[in-house]
Amino acid sequence: FASASTSASASASVSTQVVLITFAIFVPREIRSTMTDQTSIFTLTHSKSGSQCKIHSYGATVISFKAGAEGRECLFLSRDAKMDGSKAIRGGIPLVFPQFGQPDKSMPQHGFLRRNTWTQLQAFDDDEAAGVSYQLALKSVQEARGGIWAEDTAFDCVCTYDIKITPTKMITTLSFENTGDKAFEFQTLQHTYFHVDDHAAYDPTKCFVKGLEGYNLVDKIDSANTGKICGSDSVVLDALTDRVYEPPSGTNKVDVAVGVGGSAGTVKMVATGTVDGKEVPVSCVVWNPFKDNAASMSDFGDDQYVDMICVEPGILGSPTLEPGKVAKLCQEIEV
Predict the structure, then answer these.
(1) What predicted TM-score, i.e. pTM, was given to this entire model?
(2) Which bin fits 32, alpha (ψ -120 to 50), beta or left (φ > 0)?
(3) Which helix (DSSP H) or strand (DSSP E) does residue 115 occupy?
(4) Percent of the residues in the chain that have a pLDDT greater than 70, as a whole number
(5) Nearest 5 degrees, angle CA 193-CA 194-CA 197?
(6) From CA 86, how far away is CA 58, in angstroms rounded?
(7) Dmax of the chain from CA atoms?
(8) Rounded-to-integer distance, Cα 191 and Cα 310, Å
(9) pLDDT in tens, 2-27
(10) pLDDT per position as a tens digit, 197-251
(11) 56, 60, 113, 182 — which has fewest CB within 10 A?
Protein backbone atom coordinates (compact mmCIF):
# COMPACT_ATOMS: atom_id res chain seq x y z
CA PHE A 1 0.00 0.00 0.00
CA ALA A 2 2.76 2.48 0.87
CA SER A 3 6.53 2.91 0.79
CA ALA A 4 8.60 5.25 2.99
CA SER A 5 12.13 6.72 3.04
CA THR A 6 13.72 8.54 5.97
CA SER A 7 16.51 11.12 6.04
CA ALA A 8 18.05 12.68 9.15
CA SER A 9 20.48 15.48 9.87
CA ALA A 10 22.32 15.80 13.18
CA SER A 11 22.31 19.44 14.13
CA ALA A 12 22.68 20.30 17.83
CA SER A 13 21.18 16.91 18.79
CA VAL A 14 17.97 17.68 16.81
CA SER A 15 16.94 15.18 14.14
CA THR A 16 14.26 15.69 11.47
CA GLN A 17 12.48 12.90 9.66
CA VAL A 18 10.76 13.29 6.31
CA VAL A 19 8.35 10.52 5.38
CA LEU A 20 7.22 10.16 1.78
CA ILE A 21 4.10 8.05 1.23
CA THR A 22 2.85 6.80 -2.13
CA PHE A 23 -0.83 5.83 -2.29
CA ALA A 24 -2.36 3.37 -4.69
CA ILE A 25 -5.75 4.47 -6.08
CA PHE A 26 -8.15 1.84 -7.32
CA VAL A 27 -10.83 2.70 -9.91
CA PRO A 28 -13.90 0.45 -10.38
CA ARG A 29 -13.58 -1.44 -13.65
CA GLU A 30 -16.91 -0.25 -15.04
CA ILE A 31 -15.99 3.42 -14.81
CA ARG A 32 -14.08 4.57 -17.87
CA SER A 33 -14.22 8.09 -19.23
CA THR A 34 -12.74 9.78 -22.27
CA MET A 35 -12.64 13.56 -22.47
CA THR A 36 -14.06 15.31 -25.51
CA ASP A 37 -13.68 19.09 -25.55
CA GLN A 38 -14.24 19.52 -21.80
CA THR A 39 -17.14 17.06 -21.70
CA SER A 40 -16.95 13.33 -21.10
CA ILE A 41 -18.28 10.04 -22.36
CA PHE A 42 -18.95 7.56 -19.59
CA THR A 43 -19.03 3.83 -20.38
CA LEU A 44 -21.27 1.81 -18.10
CA THR A 45 -20.83 -1.97 -18.19
CA HIS A 46 -22.87 -4.66 -16.51
CA SER A 47 -20.03 -7.01 -15.66
CA LYS A 48 -22.12 -10.16 -15.30
CA SER A 49 -23.85 -9.96 -18.70
CA GLY A 50 -21.55 -7.70 -20.71
CA SER A 51 -24.36 -5.25 -21.50
CA GLN A 52 -23.01 -1.76 -22.07
CA CYS A 53 -24.12 1.79 -22.69
CA LYS A 54 -22.32 5.09 -23.21
CA ILE A 55 -23.50 8.45 -21.91
CA HIS A 56 -22.22 11.86 -22.95
CA SER A 57 -22.37 14.38 -20.11
CA TYR A 58 -23.51 17.05 -22.59
CA GLY A 59 -27.25 16.67 -22.34
CA ALA A 60 -26.78 13.45 -20.35
CA THR A 61 -27.26 11.93 -23.80
CA VAL A 62 -27.17 8.14 -24.02
CA ILE A 63 -25.34 7.56 -27.31
CA SER A 64 -24.99 3.77 -27.35
CA PHE A 65 -26.65 0.67 -25.91
CA LYS A 66 -25.75 -2.98 -26.48
CA ALA A 67 -27.49 -5.80 -24.60
CA GLY A 68 -25.11 -8.62 -23.73
CA ALA A 69 -21.42 -9.02 -24.49
CA GLU A 70 -22.04 -9.59 -28.22
CA GLY A 71 -25.12 -7.39 -28.54
CA ARG A 72 -25.97 -5.27 -31.58
CA GLU A 73 -26.03 -1.49 -31.38
CA CYS A 74 -29.59 -0.43 -30.53
CA LEU A 75 -29.19 3.33 -30.93
CA PHE A 76 -28.40 5.45 -33.96
CA LEU A 77 -25.73 8.14 -33.73
CA SER A 78 -25.08 10.34 -36.75
CA ARG A 79 -21.53 10.15 -38.04
CA ASP A 80 -21.63 13.97 -38.22
CA ALA A 81 -23.00 14.51 -34.70
CA LYS A 82 -21.37 17.41 -32.86
CA MET A 83 -19.75 16.01 -29.73
CA ASP A 84 -18.06 19.21 -28.56
CA GLY A 85 -21.02 20.92 -26.91
CA SER A 86 -21.63 23.29 -29.81
CA LYS A 87 -25.14 21.91 -30.37
CA ALA A 88 -27.39 19.08 -29.23
CA ILE A 89 -26.06 15.61 -30.06
CA ARG A 90 -27.72 14.17 -33.15
CA GLY A 91 -28.66 10.66 -32.12
CA GLY A 92 -28.92 8.44 -29.08
CA ILE A 93 -31.54 9.70 -26.62
CA PRO A 94 -31.65 13.51 -26.43
CA LEU A 95 -33.82 14.81 -23.58
CA VAL A 96 -36.63 17.32 -24.07
CA PHE A 97 -38.03 19.76 -21.43
CA PRO A 98 -39.87 22.08 -20.72
CA GLN A 99 -41.36 22.18 -24.24
CA PHE A 100 -41.56 19.77 -27.17
CA GLY A 101 -40.84 21.46 -30.47
CA GLN A 102 -41.23 25.21 -30.23
CA PRO A 103 -44.81 26.19 -29.37
CA ASP A 104 -43.31 29.12 -27.42
CA LYS A 105 -41.12 30.88 -29.99
CA SER A 106 -39.35 32.88 -27.26
CA MET A 107 -37.87 29.62 -25.95
CA PRO A 108 -35.41 27.38 -27.87
CA GLN A 109 -36.79 24.26 -29.55
CA HIS A 110 -37.07 21.25 -27.22
CA GLY A 111 -35.87 23.29 -24.21
CA PHE A 112 -32.58 23.22 -22.36
CA LEU A 113 -31.84 19.67 -21.08
CA ARG A 114 -30.01 18.53 -24.22
CA ARG A 115 -27.97 21.75 -24.45
CA ASN A 116 -26.24 21.77 -21.06
CA THR A 117 -23.63 19.67 -19.27
CA TRP A 118 -25.03 17.48 -16.49
CA THR A 119 -23.30 16.34 -13.30
CA GLN A 120 -22.63 12.62 -13.02
CA LEU A 121 -23.67 11.09 -9.70
CA GLN A 122 -23.20 7.58 -8.31
CA ALA A 123 -22.77 4.46 -10.42
CA PHE A 124 -23.25 0.81 -9.48
CA ASP A 125 -22.71 -2.67 -10.93
CA ASP A 126 -24.24 -5.75 -9.28
CA ASP A 127 -25.49 -9.16 -10.37
CA GLU A 128 -28.86 -7.90 -11.58
CA ALA A 129 -27.99 -4.59 -13.22
CA ALA A 130 -25.61 -1.68 -13.59
CA GLY A 131 -26.62 1.95 -13.43
CA VAL A 132 -25.62 5.58 -13.19
CA SER A 133 -27.42 8.86 -12.46
CA TYR A 134 -27.02 12.39 -13.78
CA GLN A 135 -28.42 15.66 -12.44
CA LEU A 136 -29.01 19.18 -13.71
CA ALA A 137 -30.25 22.02 -11.50
CA LEU A 138 -31.93 24.97 -13.18
CA LYS A 139 -29.44 27.32 -11.53
CA SER A 140 -26.67 25.54 -13.51
CA VAL A 141 -28.41 25.93 -16.87
CA GLN A 142 -26.47 28.35 -19.07
CA GLU A 143 -27.63 27.53 -22.60
CA ALA A 144 -30.97 27.34 -24.43
CA ARG A 145 -33.04 29.36 -21.96
CA GLY A 146 -35.73 31.83 -22.88
CA GLY A 147 -39.32 32.88 -22.47
CA ILE A 148 -40.78 32.11 -19.05
CA TRP A 149 -37.69 29.96 -18.36
CA ALA A 150 -35.17 32.78 -18.95
CA GLU A 151 -32.58 33.71 -16.33
CA ASP A 152 -35.13 35.82 -14.44
CA THR A 153 -37.68 33.00 -14.28
CA ALA A 154 -39.95 32.61 -11.27
CA PHE A 155 -39.60 28.82 -11.55
CA ASP A 156 -37.04 26.43 -10.13
CA CYS A 157 -36.46 22.71 -10.58
CA VAL A 158 -33.90 19.92 -10.38
CA CYS A 159 -33.75 17.29 -13.13
CA THR A 160 -32.40 13.78 -12.52
CA TYR A 161 -31.74 11.07 -15.11
CA ASP A 162 -31.32 7.46 -13.98
CA ILE A 163 -29.93 4.95 -16.47
CA LYS A 164 -29.97 1.23 -15.74
CA ILE A 165 -28.89 -1.72 -17.92
CA THR A 166 -29.59 -5.43 -17.46
CA PRO A 167 -28.79 -8.48 -19.63
CA THR A 168 -31.66 -7.59 -22.00
CA LYS A 169 -32.88 -4.08 -21.15
CA MET A 170 -32.05 -0.42 -20.72
CA ILE A 171 -34.33 1.61 -18.43
CA THR A 172 -34.02 5.40 -18.56
CA THR A 173 -36.00 7.45 -16.03
CA LEU A 174 -36.17 11.24 -16.33
CA SER A 175 -37.42 13.01 -13.18
CA PHE A 176 -38.24 16.64 -12.41
CA GLU A 177 -38.68 18.04 -8.93
CA ASN A 178 -40.32 21.45 -8.58
CA THR A 179 -37.99 23.02 -6.01
CA GLY A 180 -39.49 26.49 -6.27
CA ASP A 181 -42.65 28.05 -4.89
CA LYS A 182 -44.46 28.45 -8.24
CA ALA A 183 -46.30 25.73 -10.16
CA PHE A 184 -45.41 25.31 -13.84
CA GLU A 185 -46.75 23.50 -16.90
CA PHE A 186 -44.35 21.37 -18.90
CA GLN A 187 -43.82 18.91 -21.72
CA THR A 188 -41.08 16.29 -21.70
CA LEU A 189 -39.90 13.57 -24.07
CA GLN A 190 -37.09 11.07 -24.62
CA HIS A 191 -36.13 11.58 -28.27
CA THR A 192 -34.95 8.01 -28.93
CA TYR A 193 -33.11 7.27 -32.19
CA PHE A 194 -33.25 3.53 -32.97
CA HIS A 195 -30.61 2.09 -35.25
CA VAL A 196 -32.00 0.18 -38.26
CA ASP A 197 -29.79 -2.54 -39.73
CA ASP A 198 -29.08 -3.04 -43.44
CA HIS A 199 -30.21 0.50 -44.44
CA ALA A 200 -33.78 -0.83 -44.19
CA ALA A 201 -35.67 2.09 -42.63
CA TYR A 202 -37.88 2.41 -45.73
CA ASP A 203 -38.55 -1.30 -46.09
CA PRO A 204 -42.00 -1.74 -44.46
CA THR A 205 -41.37 -5.44 -43.84
CA LYS A 206 -38.29 -4.70 -41.77
CA CYS A 207 -38.82 -1.28 -40.18
CA PHE A 208 -42.12 -0.40 -38.53
CA VAL A 209 -43.84 0.56 -35.29
CA LYS A 210 -46.56 -1.81 -34.10
CA GLY A 211 -48.85 -1.23 -31.13
CA LEU A 212 -50.43 2.18 -31.78
CA GLU A 213 -53.91 0.97 -32.67
CA GLY A 214 -56.55 3.42 -31.48
CA TYR A 215 -54.13 6.32 -31.11
CA ASN A 216 -55.09 9.73 -32.51
CA LEU A 217 -52.73 11.04 -35.20
CA VAL A 218 -51.33 14.57 -35.33
CA ASP A 219 -49.36 14.84 -38.58
CA LYS A 220 -46.96 17.78 -38.62
CA ILE A 221 -46.17 17.30 -42.33
CA ASP A 222 -49.59 16.57 -43.84
CA SER A 223 -52.38 18.20 -41.85
CA ALA A 224 -54.96 16.25 -43.86
CA ASN A 225 -54.00 13.20 -41.82
CA THR A 226 -54.46 14.91 -38.46
CA GLY A 227 -57.41 13.54 -36.53
CA LYS A 228 -57.27 10.10 -38.08
CA ILE A 229 -57.32 7.11 -35.74
CA CYS A 230 -54.49 4.64 -36.14
CA GLY A 231 -55.68 1.20 -37.22
CA SER A 232 -54.18 -2.22 -36.66
CA ASP A 233 -51.61 -1.79 -39.44
CA SER A 234 -48.06 -1.00 -38.43
CA VAL A 235 -46.77 2.55 -38.80
CA VAL A 236 -44.13 2.63 -41.56
CA LEU A 237 -41.94 5.22 -43.27
CA ASP A 238 -42.52 6.30 -46.87
CA ALA A 239 -41.39 9.94 -46.90
CA LEU A 240 -40.56 12.77 -44.51
CA THR A 241 -42.27 11.71 -41.28
CA ASP A 242 -43.11 13.79 -38.21
CA ARG A 243 -46.16 12.41 -36.42
CA VAL A 244 -47.48 12.51 -32.87
CA TYR A 245 -49.65 9.59 -31.77
CA GLU A 246 -51.87 10.55 -28.84
CA PRO A 247 -53.20 7.71 -26.68
CA PRO A 248 -56.92 6.91 -26.53
CA SER A 249 -58.84 7.52 -23.32
CA GLY A 250 -57.89 5.04 -20.64
CA THR A 251 -54.46 4.28 -22.14
CA ASN A 252 -51.55 5.85 -20.31
CA LYS A 253 -48.48 3.85 -21.29
CA VAL A 254 -46.82 3.33 -24.66
CA ASP A 255 -46.12 -0.33 -25.48
CA VAL A 256 -44.78 -0.85 -29.00
CA ALA A 257 -42.57 -3.17 -31.05
CA VAL A 258 -40.10 -1.39 -33.32
CA GLY A 259 -38.81 -3.22 -36.39
CA VAL A 260 -35.11 -2.52 -36.64
CA GLY A 261 -34.19 -4.27 -39.87
CA GLY A 262 -32.59 -7.45 -41.12
CA SER A 263 -32.15 -10.35 -38.73
CA ALA A 264 -32.40 -8.03 -35.71
CA GLY A 265 -36.18 -8.38 -35.69
CA THR A 266 -37.90 -6.07 -33.22
CA VAL A 267 -37.08 -4.08 -30.12
CA LYS A 268 -39.76 -3.60 -27.47
CA MET A 269 -40.28 -0.12 -26.05
CA VAL A 270 -42.52 0.59 -23.06
CA ALA A 271 -42.93 4.04 -21.53
CA THR A 272 -44.88 5.40 -18.57
CA GLY A 273 -45.33 8.81 -16.99
CA THR A 274 -46.38 10.12 -13.60
CA VAL A 275 -47.02 13.52 -12.04
CA ASP A 276 -47.03 13.54 -8.23
CA GLY A 277 -47.22 9.76 -8.30
CA LYS A 278 -50.31 9.63 -10.53
CA GLU A 279 -50.17 8.10 -14.01
CA VAL A 280 -50.55 10.48 -16.94
CA PRO A 281 -50.98 9.72 -20.68
CA VAL A 282 -47.78 9.19 -22.68
CA SER A 283 -47.77 10.00 -26.39
CA CYS A 284 -45.50 8.47 -29.04
CA VAL A 285 -43.69 10.49 -31.73
CA VAL A 286 -42.39 8.87 -34.93
CA TRP A 287 -39.82 10.86 -36.92
CA ASN A 288 -37.51 10.39 -39.90
CA PRO A 289 -36.05 13.26 -41.96
CA PHE A 290 -36.03 11.51 -45.38
CA LYS A 291 -33.35 12.41 -47.91
CA ASP A 292 -33.94 16.13 -48.47
CA ASN A 293 -34.04 17.07 -44.81
CA ALA A 294 -31.14 14.75 -44.02
CA ALA A 295 -29.03 16.56 -46.62
CA SER A 296 -29.99 19.95 -45.20
CA MET A 297 -28.74 19.16 -41.67
CA SER A 298 -25.03 19.75 -41.04
CA ASP A 299 -24.91 17.17 -38.26
CA PHE A 300 -26.71 14.37 -40.13
CA GLY A 301 -25.13 12.20 -42.82
CA ASP A 302 -26.85 12.78 -46.17
CA ASP A 303 -27.47 9.07 -46.68
CA GLN A 304 -28.13 8.04 -43.08
CA TYR A 305 -31.90 8.54 -43.05
CA VAL A 306 -32.20 4.87 -44.09
CA ASP A 307 -30.34 3.80 -40.93
CA MET A 308 -32.70 5.13 -38.24
CA ILE A 309 -36.18 5.67 -36.97
CA CYS A 310 -37.09 7.87 -34.02
CA VAL A 311 -39.75 6.45 -31.73
CA GLU A 312 -40.10 8.91 -28.88
CA PRO A 313 -42.26 8.62 -25.75
CA GLY A 314 -43.38 11.89 -24.21
CA ILE A 315 -45.69 13.60 -21.74
CA LEU A 316 -47.11 16.19 -24.12
CA GLY A 317 -50.40 17.21 -22.51
CA SER A 318 -48.76 20.08 -20.57
CA PRO A 319 -49.65 18.93 -17.03
CA THR A 320 -48.97 21.20 -14.05
CA LEU A 321 -46.22 20.37 -11.55
CA GLU A 322 -46.92 21.90 -8.16
CA PRO A 323 -44.16 23.06 -5.75
CA GLY A 324 -42.46 20.18 -3.96
CA LYS A 325 -43.88 17.58 -6.38
CA VAL A 326 -42.07 15.25 -8.81
CA ALA A 327 -42.85 14.20 -12.38
CA LYS A 328 -41.29 11.17 -14.09
CA LEU A 329 -41.00 9.77 -17.62
CA CYS A 330 -39.66 6.22 -17.77
CA GLN A 331 -38.63 4.40 -20.95
CA GLU A 332 -37.73 0.71 -21.08
CA ILE A 333 -36.02 -0.72 -24.18
CA GLU A 334 -35.85 -4.52 -24.39
CA VAL A 335 -34.10 -6.58 -27.05
Answers:
(1) 0.89
(2) beta
(3) none
(4) 88
(5) 140
(6) 10
(7) 99
(8) 7
(9) 333 343 443 444 343 433 333 333 33
(10) 999 999 999 999 999 999 999 999 999 999 999 999 999 999 999 999 999 999 9
(11) 182
